[in-house]
Amino acid sequence: MRDSGSIQGSGGAQALSLQQLELARLIAQYAATDGIHQTAIAPLHVVRLSQPTTPVHALHMPALCIIAQGQKQVMLADEVYIYNSAQYLVVSVDLPVMGHVSQATPELPYLCVRLDLDPKEIGDLIMAGKVHAKKSDLPARGMFVSKANSSLLDAVLRLMQLLATPQDIAVLAPLAIREILYRLLQDEQGGMLQQIAMSDSQAQHVVKAIELIKRDYRLPLRIENLAREANMSSSSLHHHFKVVTAMTPLQYQKQLRLQEARRLLFTQVGDAATAGHLVGYESPSQFSREYNRMFGSPPARDVARLRATSAAGGNPA
Q1: 200-241 tens-digit pLDDT
Q2: pTM of the predicted model, to two decimals?
Q3: Cα distance between residue 118 and residue 62, in whole Å
Q4: CA–CA separation, 53 vs 173, rounded Å?
């Protein structure tokens, strides 16, 4: 949370600081304990953590994340995104990332609100003809950090305030979410979000390719077949896919395979060779090498550490 000095200055800066303070209060109210908490509004979650976390690998779905207190770092391939209460993060396509909370204490816990984004709702808003975001025919990165502004925070606060009046949620929550999407599209990087929802854009073809890789991640990846199904040439797919995701289709598939193998090893009885086979690896040695490279330890040692951390009530990475 910002110190009192941030409340001094212009009226706009003061209003923004007060909004951040109110957002932190509301998040703390609905996230009384550490963890990710589902709210009565289906796409809205609140997060509280009382200490920094170790890096966690995950497939990040499309979402808006606004931190009211604390700081987080997210890595996409070799890129690092750091954001705090002065900024917000938008993920516009499914992306394999690694993230950790870098600033949090019991006295000043990390407090965040996450709103899952529906590309169809974004598309409907664009089709209504009321959005004037900067357009681009070229895809851009499917994740970005931008400065928080008073208009966006005001809309998020009104959505959060609806949690106190459940009878109003069915009617008013869709309106508040629509305004939030409008504010995102109107913001400085709104064009990056807009192109994901535009039919027949290059970015939309990449989204199609991502869906196909997720569906068939256990199968050998044939770039020519993937490009044909995504209605792109092989060279165009490779180029635009890397622009949006910061990785090649093969690298994306590898991330999905290894994350799923790790989940299987952590939650089910089985050895590394079995887990590797289940996610599509034919060679146990190749699976172990790539697992070690991604997670920093061989499968058996990594999963033992995860289980020990989980048993101790910590944060599995």
Answers
A1: 678 889 999 999 999 999 999 999 999 999 999 999 999 999
A2: 0.89
A3: 7
A4: 32
